[in-house]
Design brief:
heterodimer, A: 613 residues, globular, B: 207 residues, 8 helices, 29% helix
């Protein structure tokens, strides 16, 4: 088999049994790899209605066909499991060398079930899977764990993916860290923690062959040229934090838990400011011609020595969204999230929510153990992140994520809980981005900008971002399927603008690598199939139309300032948008995939199961 | 530096971002496959260099009086007088062939440039791919998206780079060719080490 490693590794942590299953070409064509594999295999290998943090939950880690080839562009891998935040499917992607080693060890995909009796880490050394004691690693940060495992196993070339303190304590938005890149969203770190699995170390010595090496190199070299061109300049020069000023100008930079859409202290947390005073160097994930990772260091003052890497979403969530305009504590907060293994977006939004509760008197200083949890208090955010990771005092409530925390606290705090399906929203104020509002409302993951990039249409001005119309359903659908194909190959989102005819070009590269015939239309359909399968998974978990919702604040509180002042998404608009989306998808008015649609996508078995319900 | 170094694959550490695409290119050029174990060039992380430089790629330096040649117990390695390329005698019939993978050359090489070919079980090293040049550029050089690599003398690369730290590293590199053992002591590189932020982190000594 070209391109793919050709095998799936099943691991049961309870019984410590492993099983190798051969990858079928039919399955590859259907689900491509990466997130497609994660979706397809998760459905087949899990039971409905299990507690996400119980041993019954299944976790799938998968590389794609492009990994370990020159078209890997970051060598990403996808993680999928039932999300502890949403109770629906949760998927997240992370870059860098770990997936390269996994695939070289001979595995495309890793399926993990059960729960280890005591803290354990796995070492996948080609065909050998070892379960090793992780007692000495427990409580340590992913940065430290990397080192300790390499030291213990005596090989510097071993790659590690691990969880931090937050994952161990099953903080519902804990992430998985590998080579300092993270699978951030949907709380995959908590699932790993619930399995007592601290880390997975991999070392591979096997070889990946491709179908047409010479042509592939030609295509790749041409692609690298494009990747150094104007389309990626944004990511290479200032990095994604360039968005801070842009979105502020457009009035879509959510501030102080979405009470405002512009931030008065925006200059000092802008990407330009960071580049001038804090960025020390720019690095790349494995096999990447773009290099977007802006490493920063605080050189002096109270937080001197703080070292982390920055991107827009982290800056938004822990900066403007918590009212923090001082760069030093903001960078410290981002670093702490890295050290504890917390998703910066969810962490920032849940802290923002707690700050609003505090200012409204729903949480008192007594509840916070004396922390003055006002917006913009740098001390407070640094202290509260530690409490969340340790699940200490009020941190125990916040560790449940915005949805559960607001339901538990009550007192009207649900009104300003900024989440969709339980997943906290990224930094685009969707009250004036109507296509994005639809894209996120219907996303199977919840509020996740990586699974639906519908904001691209709004911000680029292709559509009127303040209005709704019939076309939005189709746009949201296209954006979702497009992301599904990118995430399955796996190609980094940052090269999404580098293809002239995306589906045709990528299908050609797919054929060059795997030797499997692929055409643009088939690839587009694969994207549609993967999105439909996610929906099928969610329906099995009890999804109804009411779950495609928006946060109450987005629908009730109009934007208070900036260019988009007065904007909101009304119930009528949302209903209209949902109808247009379900119609574009060929689904029923309730949002259920129809039998015909599933049969058309080659999912007859799934259709039968759905009808039985 | 007494004289100009010969031409070999020189990396400008200021431009290198640590993506390791050169390793992929090398493995594809040499073995028509993707497995960095076959790669004759390695992306290494320099953990004793002050910011802002973290990584660089290192291949054979075509040393004057190379340690690998001196140390080989079977006298299987020779150096091409003109280009400085290390030639591995792979003729198994010959008494002086690289036959038993003893690994002495790998230990002797200061730059980690000698590899063990996993398939043939003999030593292998960068030969500058003389048969595979396009516009004078071997595969790794033309692959690097960051223009960090060039087939040049150290002096030529030194002239082009403006960064002081990069200059210092390159100067040491040239020195080390003549007297290996100084480079590692000064900069301490760790082959294949990932975790860039971690290295930054340690530099600033925070727990």
């Amino acid at each position: 088999m070209f391109g793919y490693a050709g095998k799936i590794l099943h691991v049961n942590l309870t019984t410590r049994k492993t099983n190798s299953v051969e990858l079928k070409e039919e399955f590859c064509k259907k689900y491509i790899g990466g997130r497609g594999f994660a979706t397809g295999l998760l459905y087949e290998n899990s039971n409905p209605n299990v507690d996400p943090l119980s041993p019954e939950n299944t976790m799938v880690l998968s590389t794609g066909p492009f990994a370990v080839t020159p078209m890997a562009i970051g060598d990403k891998f996808a993680v999928g499991a039932k999300s502890p935040l949403t109770g629906f499917i949760g998927e997240s992607l992370g870059g860098s060398f770990w997936s390269r080693e996994l695939k070289k060890a001979g595995w495309d995909t890793l399926i993990i079930r059960g729960r280890a009796e005591k803290p354990t880490y796995m070492f996948i050394d080609d065909d050998i899977v070892e379960f090793r004691d992780a007692k000495s690693l427990w409580g340590k940060s992913p940065w430290k764990v990397d080192d300790l495992i390499r030291e213990e196993l005596g090989d510097e070339s071993i790659r590690v993916t691990s969880i931090g303190l937050a994952g161990e304590n099953m903080v519902r938005f804990a992430n998985i860290t590998n080579d300092m890149r993270t699978c951030g969203r949907t709380g995959m770190g908590a699932v790993m923690g619930s399995k007592n699995l601290k880390a997975i170390a991999t070392r591979g010595t096997k070889t990946i062959f491709v179908a047409n090496l010479d042509k592939l190199w030609e295509v790749a070299l041409e692609f690298y040229q494009k990747a150094r061109g104007p389309e990626t300049e944004k990511y290479r020069v200032v990095g994604t934090p360039v968005n801070v000023l842009v979105l502020n100008r457009l009035g879509i930079l959510p501030t102080k838990n979405w009470q405002q859409s512009t931030f008065e202290g925006v200059e000092t947390v802008s990407g330009e400011h960071m580049l001038k005073y804090y960025v020390t160097n720019i690095t790349a994930c494995s096999s990447c011609p773009i290099a977007c990772d802006h490493n920063v260091t605080v050189k002096e003052g109270l937080y001197a020595g703080t070292t982390t890497s920055i991107d827009y979403e982290s800056m938004y969530a822990l900066g403007p969204n918590c009212g923090i305009g001082a760069p030093d504590p903001l960078l410290k907060a981002i670093e702490l999230c890295d050290v504890y293994g917390l998703d910066t977006i969810s962490a920032g939004v849940v802290v923002g929510w707690a700050m609003e509760c505090y200012e409204k008197g729903l949480i008192t200083k007594e509840d916070t153990d004396g922390i003055d949890l006002r917006f913009g208090n740098p001390e407070a955010i640094i202290q509260i992140l530690g409490k969340i990771a340790r699940r200490e005092g009020i941190g125990d409530l916040l560790a449940e994520g915005t949805k559960i925390a607001s339901e538990r606290l009550g007192k009207g705090s649900e009104h300003f809980a900024i989440h969709i399906k339980g997943l906290e929203l990224p930094g685009y104020d969707i009250r004036s981005l109507k296509t994005a509002a639809l894209g996120w409302a219907v996303s199977a993951n919840g509020g996740d900008h990586n699974r639906s990039g519908a904001y691209d249409y709004d911000i680029s001005g292709k559509v009127d971002r303040f209005k709704v119309d019939e076309s939005r359903g189709k746009l949201a659908m296209e954006s979702e399927d497009f992301a599904a194909v990118l995430d399955s190959m796996i190609l980094c989102k940052f090269c999404r603008r580098l293809f002239k005819n995306f589906y045709a070009d990528v299908a050609e590269i797919y054929t060059l690598i795997t030797g499997i015939e692929m055409k643009a239309a088939k690839l587009r359909q694969a994207g549609e199939r993967i999105t439909n399968m996610k929906k099928v998974f969610n329906i099995r978990e009890g999804w109804t139309r009411a779950n495609d919702h928006l946060p109450p604040r987005v629908m009730k509180d109009p934007v208070s300032d900036g260019m988009a002042k007065g904007s909101l998404v009304t119930q009528e608009e949302l209903d209209f948008l949902l109808d247009s989306y379900y119609k574009a998808r060929g689904w029923s008015k309730d949002g259920n995939p129809t039998r015909e649609k599933l049969v058309e996508l080659g999912l007859e078995d799934r259709a039968k199961e759905l009808l039985k319900r | 530096m007494n004289q100009m170094s010969p031409k070999f694959i020189v990396c400008d550490p200021k431009k290198c971002v640590g993506c390791a695409l050169c390793e992929q290119a090398c493995s594809a050029a040499k073995e028509k496959c993707f497995n960095t174990l076959y790669s004759r060039i390695h992306t290494v992380y320099l953990d004793r260099v002050s910011e802002p430089i973290l990584s660089m790629s290192i291949a054979c330096h075509h040393c004057d009086d190379p340690a690998c040649v001196k140390v080989c117990p079977r006298e299987a390695l020779t150096q091409d007088e003109e280009t400085g390329v290390i030639i591995v005698n792979a003729d198994f019939e010959d008494a002086h062939s690289c036959h038993v993978p003893c690994g002495w050359c790998m230990i002797a090489c200061e730059f980690g440039a000698m590899i063990l070919d996993p398939k043939l079980s003999i030593a292998a090293v960068c030969d500058l791919c003389p048969e595979d040049h396009v516009n004078g550029e071997p595969p790794c050089v033309r692959t690097c998206p960051y223009d960090a690599l060039s087939l040049a003398t150290v002096e030529e690369v030194l002239e082009k780079t403006e960064n002081e730290t990069a200059k210092k590293i390159l100067k040491e590199l040239a020195q080390a060719r003549e007297n290996s053992k100084t480079f590692y002591e000064k900069f301490g590189y760790i082959p294949m080490k990932p975790s860039r932020e971690k290295i930054l982190y340690e530099k600033h000594k925070i727990s």
